[in-house]
């Protein structure tokens, strides 16, 4: 596997910790450690867990007009973003489909810091670069690792090593040091819990990871727990819940479209977005709770009770915190209201389910 897949700077540490390595987005990544996915998931909800997300794409957008340049590709209001703040956004294609979702932070002095999905960075970065005017440049950061330290105890545990981190608000960003290691920290994550994501020079990543894992009660966690945590939190996974065929309106991500951008309508695919906002889309992404304990996986057909198929599951798992299955998928707009009865075709049988509000587990971000 190592001959064909890329590795993150923490690959040796994953193997030392007993990580089960699997292919993911072109990388060898740990799906779980010996304790197992459920234990890692519950440890994140109760305490603190460390995830390696160094496969993600990191880059800086530099130069006067960087925010305006990025707005040529996204309906997010980037220019309103103040120094030391971060937001979630969508890159759109001319048809109004989602090329990727991303995080962007304003580091001050015409510096934007971007994090894009591992599976899409080879698409996103050339797309952004091609849209840049003279004087604005994109600098990929392949020499940096990215660690996610998540859970209600993550920031309190970090406070002794990096007091500046404890002072960060939700979606706040700071360049600081953790135990003497220079880092860029954002108070954000993909689990629904409080926590941080830490960009660190690749050569210092293992030392930082080991220091964080030495803190009381901290466990390593892999892709399996990351997926069940984000699904309980109602967060989209690119390639499953959103892709180049889905629009922000269908995906229930209208909140990412800035107020000013809805007055200007000068972003890619604005015609489709505007039409769907005015007339309603034909389908919508919804949360789904199947009855019983059998999970419904991606591509499971969704039916109206006793009727024809009218959608499909895009993500589904057993939720350890819910102690039951949960899923997301697209259904015809007339069947999208909370509480609507559905049937899922699981292993040839009709499994009763209902539309449910997300998140399935309440977010506990720092407010």
TrEMBL record:
<dbReference type="GO" id="GO:0032259">
    <property type="term" value="P:methylation"/>
</dbReference>
<feature type="binding site">
    <location>
        <position position="197"/>
    </location>
    <ligand>
        <name>substrate</name>
    </ligand>
</feature>
<dbReference type="GO" id="GO:0006546">
    <property type="term" value="P:glycine catabolic process"/>
</dbReference>
<dbReference type="Pfam" id="PF01571">
    <property type="entry name" value="GCV_T"/>
</dbReference>
<dbReference type="GO" id="GO:0008483">
    <property type="term" value="F:transaminase activity"/>
</dbReference>
<dbReference type="InterPro" id="IPR029043">
    <property type="entry name" value="GcvT/YgfZ_C"/>
</dbReference>
<dbReference type="InterPro" id="IPR013977">
    <property type="entry name" value="GcvT_C"/>
</dbReference>
<keyword id="KW-0032">Aminotransferase</keyword>
<dbReference type="GO" id="GO:0005960">
    <property type="term" value="C:glycine cleavage complex"/>
</dbReference>
<keyword id="KW-0808">Transferase</keyword>
<keyword id="KW-0489">Methyltransferase</keyword>
<comment type="similarity">
    <text>Belongs to the GcvT family.</text>
</comment>
<dbReference type="InterPro" id="IPR027266">
    <property type="entry name" value="TrmE/GcvT-like"/>
</dbReference>
<dbReference type="InterPro" id="IPR006223">
    <property type="entry name" value="GcvT"/>
</dbReference>
<dbReference type="Pfam" id="PF08669">
    <property type="entry name" value="GCV_T_C"/>
</dbReference>
<dbReference type="GO" id="GO:0004047">
    <property type="term" value="F:aminomethyltransferase activity"/>
</dbReference>
<dbReference type="InterPro" id="IPR028896">
    <property type="entry name" value="GcvT/YgfZ/DmdA"/>
</dbReference>
<dbReference type="GO" id="GO:0008168">
    <property type="term" value="F:methyltransferase activity"/>
</dbReference>
<dbReference type="InterPro" id="IPR006222">
    <property type="entry name" value="GCVT_N"/>
</dbReference>
<protein>
    <recommendedName>
        <fullName>aminomethyltransferase</fullName>
        <ecNumber>2.1.2.10</ecNumber>
    </recommendedName>
</protein>
<feature type="domain" description="GCVT N-terminal">
    <location>
        <begin position="12"/>
        <end position="259"/>
    </location>
</feature>
<feature type="domain" description="Aminomethyltransferase C-terminal">
    <location>
        <begin position="285"/>
        <end position="361"/>
    </location>
</feature>
């Amino acid at each position: 596997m190592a001959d064909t897949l890329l590795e993150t700077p923490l690959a040796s540490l994953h193997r030392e910790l007993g990580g089960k390595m699997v292919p993911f987005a072109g990388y060898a990544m740990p799906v779980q450690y010996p304790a197992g996915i459920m234990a890692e998931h519950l440890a994140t909800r109760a305490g603190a867990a460390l995830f390696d997300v160094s496969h993600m794409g990191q880059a800086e957008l530099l130069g006067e007009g960087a925010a305006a340049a990025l707005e040529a590709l996204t309906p997010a209001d980037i220019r309103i973003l103040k120094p030391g703040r971060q937001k979630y956004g969508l890159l759109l294609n001319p048809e109004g489909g989602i090329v990727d979702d991303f995080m962007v932070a304003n580091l001050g002095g015409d510096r934007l810091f971007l994090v894009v999905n591992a599976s899409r960075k080879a698409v996103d970065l050339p797309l952004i670069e091609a849209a840049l005017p003279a004087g604005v440049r994109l600098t990929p950061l392949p020499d940096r690792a990215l660690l996610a330290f998540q859970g209600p105890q993550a920031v309190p545990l970090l406070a002794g090593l990096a007091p500046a981190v404890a002072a960060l608000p939700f979606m706040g960003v700071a360049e600081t040091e953790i135990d003497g290691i220079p880092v860029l920290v954002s108070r954000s994550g993909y689990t629904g819990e409080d926590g941080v994501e830490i960009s660190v020079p690749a050569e210092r990543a293992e030392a930082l990871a080991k220091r964080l894992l030495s803190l009381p009660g901290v466990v390593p966690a892999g892709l399996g727990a990351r997926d069940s945590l984000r699904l309980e939190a109602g967060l989209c996974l690119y390639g499953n819940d959103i892709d180049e065929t889905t629009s922000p309106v269908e995906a229930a991500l209208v909140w990412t479209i800035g107020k000013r951008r809805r007055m200007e309508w000068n972003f890619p695919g604005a015609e489709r977005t505007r039409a769907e906002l005015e007339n309603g889309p034909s389908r919508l992404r919804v949360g789904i709770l199947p009855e019983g304990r059998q999970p419904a996986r991606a591509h499971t057909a969704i039916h109206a009770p006793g009727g024809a198929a009218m959608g499909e599951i895009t993500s589904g798992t057993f939720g350890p915190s819910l102690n039951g299955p949960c899923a997301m998928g697209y259904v015809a707009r007339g069947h999208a209201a909370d509480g609507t009865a559905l049937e899922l075709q699981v292993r040839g049988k009709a499994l009763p389910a209902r539309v449910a509000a997300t998140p399935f587990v309440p977010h506990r971000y720092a407010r």
